[in-house]
Give the backbone structure.
Amino acid sequence: MKVRTAITLSAVIVAAVAVLANSGLLQPALAQPLLDEGQLQADEPDGDQLPLFRFFMKRMAARLELTEPQREEIHTLIETQMPTLKPLIGQLMDSRKRLAEINNGDTFQEEETRSLVEQQSNALNELLVAKERLLHQINQILTPDQRTKADQMRGRFEQRVRRWLDS
């Protein structure tokens, strides 16, 4: 069950980015380079709607020592994935809203709930595939040394998630 929670957490991260893109909140962040070497602060006063997302992207870029062409190519990959993610996030948002509506009454609507949960499951599966596709594409841009560093960073992140799940 904990592995499923970790997978769901991963999908939620991808979904959060996609929800922000779908709502238009990602546009200010995408208008600026996600991976520039600017100030690495989580709280940016410039009105950026995604300061934490930008912070982590900048931090990863700095730790991996990405070149400018690599930064631009990764930025383009992220932008390219948004049209794939938006409809999936729309499905998740619609089914979540419908679940709240139908189960707010006096009786539990099990059949419709199961149907909506299955739709959400399918959308989450597609989001996970999109995330893995994006990670694969990014991995192709990295040098062997950068891939090693990225693997180590992912390993440390997974350890933190596992500690959280075990607590």
Observations:
- The two ends are 14 Å apart (CA to CA).
- Residues 1-6, 17-32, 37-49 have pLDDT under 50 and may be disordered.
- DSSP finds six helices and no strands in the chain.
